[in-house]
User: Fold this.
Amino acid sequence: MRVLLVEDEEKIANAVKRGLELKGYAVDTVADSDTGLSYAVDPDYDIIILDRMLPGSKDGLDIARQARAEGQMAPILILTARGSVEDKVEGLNAGVDDYLVKPFSFSELVARMQALLRRPPVPTSSVLSYADLTLDPAKYEVARSGKAIKLSNKEFALLEYFIRHSEQILTKDMIINHVWNEDAIVMPNTVEVYIGYLRSKIDRAFPNQPQLLNTVRGFGYKLSR
Ligand code: CA
Assistant:
């Protein structure tokens, strides 16, 4: 899950980034509205969190409005010090999906994010599945044929990306852009290493089941039967 956080209060930005990364999200942080807009149009984000009041020529709602106008489909959550009804109506008109009034608790932010990420096109059930694999993004649980599998945060994020895009070829670049944040120095080899870890846990540990995580030579990888 890739998250964009546009927040000028450094303390909040750092705390949220650190907390979300511990939960396995890849988080990019931006501190002003103009840079924020240039990031917010990127279709690779799964969710966008915007502070309402930002330095620069725009506020959070302007970013939301313009990102939507440029086709951004990801859920957008606004952080605001104000919580009046007028603000909420204005936000809904700008294409905002939810509001969180400051000060907020980290657990409430995560709960709101998970609720937004569960919305269609993701199926109504929060548990994702492919073949005999299941992954519960809310509980951080993975199982194959009902047997629990322990994954690291990165392996979990990688598998979630594959299950959400099953039977599609995912290139190394797509994987890097999706699973790692932009500050991370990721070599194509790193992806191979993580694919190897994941394969040993979801495929090699189940020798009687078909291999699901397959290499498509010259292109990338595909979760397929
Ligand atoms: Ca602010």
